[in-house]
Amino acid sequence: MKSALSSPTARDALLQELEEAMRRSSAQGVMYGQAVANMAGISNSDMECMDFLNLEGRVTAGRLAEVTGLTTGAITGVVDRLEKAGYVRRERDESDRRKVFISVVEEKGAEIGKFYVPMQQAMHKLWSRYSDEELRLLLRFANDGYKGVLEATEALKTVIEMPPEQRASLKMPPKSQR
Questions:
Q1: Count of CB atoms within 10 A of residue 147's CB?
Q2: What is the pLDDT of residues 31-80, one digit of tens each?
Q3: pTM exceeding 0.85
């Protein structure tokens, strides 16, 4: 005899609930980032690129495009704006002057970082309730989620690049309301 939780209907409901919880969390993270970006005087998307730079360290514009899913042209604009605002600098590679790295200006990064302390503290408090095994599962879930969103971003870019008449003929599967 199957449990109610394993029935397709119960699983579908659970998946729907998980999707909605992730959307809430993601949306609230975006709102938090927007508030920090407003205080820093930069756009939210530029702030997210700053976060990738903090995670990746000193990288090329190509690498930043790869991890964000943005085009290299869009990254050039992001880096130009962040450099003008004093948050990043371009540095030529010592061994290959054609190669340019983007790095965060530490003092300016620290200014932004202090605004994330309350969120970090709240998350650490929450995570302290999980066992090491649960944390490993959550880590796998988060990493897989990032990969899935990056793949979806790439797929969306191909749709955006389509002529409007081709886009209009695309059939999207019915999904929950966004």
A1: 10
A2: 999 999 999 999 999 999 999 999 999 999 999 999 998 889 999 999 99
A3: no
d(CA 64, CA 4): 45
Residue type, 99: K
Between the CA atoms of 67, 31, 155 and 74, what dihedral angle is there, to the nearest 10 degrees?
Answer: -60
- The phi and psi torsions of 176 (rounded to 5 degrees) equal -60, 155
Cβ atoms of residues 34 and 45 within 8 Å: no
Closest to 69 measured CA to CA, from 154, 162, 159, 155: 154
Whole-number Å distance between alpha carbons of 151 and 157: 10
2's torsion region: left (phi>0), alpha (psi -120 to 50) or beta? beta
C-alpha 175/C-alpha 163 separation (Å) is 24
Tokens 């793949």, located at residue: 151
Query: Can you tell me the distance from the alpha carbon of 124 to that of 17, in angstroms, rounded to the nearest whole number?
Result: 24
What is the distance of C-alpha 53 from the center of its chain?
11
